[in-house]
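Appendix B. Raw example, untouched.
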Amino acid sequence: MAKAYWISAYRSISNPEALAAYAKLAGPALTAAGGKFLARNEAAAVKEAGVKQRTVLLEFESVEAALAAYNSPGYQEAIRALGTGSVERDIRIVEGV
């Protein structure tokens, strides 16, 4: 079974305090679900309509594990802490090769 990669690309952050509250809950929830953080920072370089904002990359054992992490009670609590309108982001779960 191929590994899976969770990519969160932030387009804008309008409420840094809500993002901090989310991160405090999301990090432990995702690692408890088997996620391994590979990158978590502002983009070092952007190309082709990229946005120089926060990007997060996690590795999971499978797509199913990544989806289970997203749907877990702990991560859903983190999403509630983030609230609506605090960030604009794109989350993708991609199967490895």
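End of appendix B.
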